[in-house]
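assembly run, all chains below
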Amino acid sequence: MSALGSDSAAAAGGILTISVEAVVANWRALAARVAPARSAAVVKADSYGLGAARLVRPLYEAGCRDFFVVALSEADALRPLLPLDATIYVLNGLLPDTAHAYGEGILPVLNSLAQCRAWADARRGSRPSVIQVDTGMSRLGLDVTEQQMLAADPGLLAATGACLIMSHLACADEPDKPASGEQLAAFRAARQRLPGLSGSLAASSGIFLGADYHFDVCRPGASLYGIETSPLAEGIKPVVDLRVRVAQLREIEAGSSVGYGYTFRTSRTTRLATLATGYADGWWRRLSNGAGAAYFGDTRLPSVGRVSMDSFSVDVTALPKEALAEGDLLELIGPHQSADDVARAAGTIGYEVLTSIGKRYHRVYR
Ligand SMILES: *Cc1c(COP(=O)(O)O)cnc(C)c1O
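ok done. output:
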């Protein structure tokens, strides 16, 4: 530890604990569910903010051999951490003039006919690739016309070195909608047009739609990180625990205002704890004025006033006076409120809560 202890847990405004064990257990549970299909691990956006560099090797050791990122820079950062029998796929596709930049064991996802041609022209046909087809969400991938054109040009198809055909479901988290069934049919039709390739359709929520959706490779992300992705999801363990420090304790009189904009005014003598986290740390401003809370044991401590960039206040009047001291840690994500609970309170989804978690917390991987 340095003399100033600036890297220590004691000096940090909060402690973010990430259970590597739970991530691995979630991967194993999903891999068992989809077998004999393989389960990949989606580790884009730094594993949804949780630290891909710390997670890919334990996932590899558990048996994972397929890792999906979005950008080539993410693939380059993770490549040295994984043996070459693991493959890293770049979902964003082959951006212009980047074919030469793909190192060994990094595969582009080709999202258009132009990308197929560019990959083939770069004489990387000996290198494999993935073809993505659009089956409804109009985001990335070859449309039906492009699929037909590719199917009509077997030389081009061979030159892409495609080994996998994939698509992505738009509504798998809403099992009652007909959309997933329609996308499944469109994916099967695409596989008939471009036969002989392994298939991949399901992300986390798609896995829970059943074996019809599993094909050869599934691509879970959020469920590895403990997010509830579907009403059908089961067997997923929480991964994240976030505790934040009491920066200051104060007692204020009735009629006092709290925080920016004076949006909260006390009606009684009130004891407040100012917590050392704010929207710059991913604690959403929408969690102002009672929408969000911290926990001390089982006691919910509602926010009062607005969440600032670096702090927010909670009402601790319900606690005995001696219960809290400056520097103590209160629960923001943990057994009393999950990342999904925080998301609901903030009007967003658990994915956004995780990927927003800031860099100032002391991180513990266990
Ligand atoms: C992000 C992403 C995934 C993972 O989705 P989750 O819902 O987090 O499991 C899978 N496939 C594609 C194409 C993605 O963009």
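The two ends are 19 Å apart (CA to CA).

The pocket of pyridoxal-5'-phosphate is lined by residues 42, 44, 91, 168, 203-205, 219-223, 229 (CB under 6 Å).

not gonna interpret more than that til we talk
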